[in-house]
Amino acid sequence: xxxxxxxxxxxxxxxxxxxxxxxxxxxxxxxxxxxxxxxxxxxxxxxxxxxxxxxxxxxxxxxxxxxxxxxxxxxxxxxxxxxxxxxxxxxxxxxxxxxxxxxxxxxxxxxxxxxxxxxxxxxxxxxxxxxxxxxxxxxxxxxxxxxxxxxxxxxxxxxxxxxxxxxxxxxxxxxxxxxxxxxxxxxxxxxxxxxxxxxx
Amino acid sequence: xxxxxxxxxxxxxxxxxxxxxxxxxxxxxxxxxxxxxxxxxxxxxxxxxxxxxxxxxxxxxxxxxxxxxxxxxxxxxxxxxxxxxxxxxxxxxxxxxxxxxxxxxxxxxxxxxxxxxxxxxxxxxxxxxxxxxxxxxxxxxxxxxxxxxxxxxxxxxxxxxxxxxxxxxxxxxxxxxxxxxxxxxxxxxxxxxxxxxxxxxxxxxxxxxxxxxxxxxxxxxxxxxxxxxxxxxxxxxxxxxxxxxxxxxxxxxxxxxxxxxxxxxxxxxxxxxxxxxxxxxxxxxxxxxxxxxxxxxxxxxxxxxxxxxxxxxxxxxxxxxxxxxxxxxxxxxxxxxxxxxx
Lengths: 200, 342
Description:
heterodimer; A: 200 residues; alpha+beta; 3-stranded mixed β-sheet; 6 strands; elongated; B: 342 residues; 6-stranded mixed β-sheet
């Protein structure tokens, strides 16, 4: 075999090695960020370093939403915070305060998709134990939405599932089969009394 | 040395090209059978599996995990809009969208039911007898018969569609002795009968204890095109509350509106408010009680193509057990509708 012919397999081997290394480098450093990263500052702390975390919860009370702040321990990851928000929200605003928040609702699952929609899977008690009129239902959905959005970073919208399924409505007044943002974006200004002189 | 450098450079360029993000091809096709349109979206398995679908009667949006190219027939039935990683399909006159994600081959199937083909429209409320001056109410389509056009308007008669809230497995408010769904139905039936006596054509969205979805109530209302739509519910307030739709939020951009829920009420807000005021005044006068107006984006109001209100009566228990109280409310609403027409 001449020296010139001996170069051909060497060139091919070098080319293949170069292409493989290059492919690995591009894949690793340019396309490996498809996983949704945890926002900065939300990494888990070392055991024993966990701190109190203040949750902002919005409860439907007296025909409006009222902010209640609660401190919980050791919730630093986004999923754990969402878990805590749901747990605390469904405990209700406190003893003796009337609210349409249904009781005994359990969180079955939390998922976040690539469009940053948080899927909240709740137990059937959400519907079964809800007793309310149209405004109560609206404020319950808005309270749940605001409580989650105000405590979580990078969540664009909230979608509620019941027992892992999409359901049309919570209490027969508002849709539950769509993400909540569009449904609860209206700020309820309060009631308007009908006056005797009211006419067309 | 130069040869080595050239080889390494070529290898790196090849690697860059090989590792470049693949653009998936997404193809759309559709077929139509009666009132049902089937839209099928086909793409590689991974593209379908990692997509997120949002489907509503107003539109469909599919978010893909990667960039894609779209291929669709020239006569594709709906308007589409494509951005880098999402595809929007604008729907019109659609009653329901059912979504299925299927495999082998991977595809997303949308079964889209269009509005005009409403089946099993409930007939008018039975009247105890024809009113001397009232023309006969329009014939009710038989169950299963398609109603493709709104019922013809009768001269001098007004069409009122009554919507008893809840029904079937959805009880509404419940106390020891009463269920909201039953009281709503009793009130709607009595109101329908009273309106028929006055020569109106009164219809109910449900005539028995049956589950009726919000989407079905809205479809029935828009197929019937009533002069007034009244939804009847119980409330937790100590007084009567009449709900009106909120004005459509114009601040959101076009893409959001495409994705937003169906909104048809804007044109009728003034008429709805007039009806609410007339009926509210009548109730206030008859009961000597406070009546409040409340605006909320309730789907059974915002999606109705005509004047629409929702009445909440207080004290479920009292209205469940007291026929005289129910009669008084019915009479008051009938008077209010009369005042609204004038």
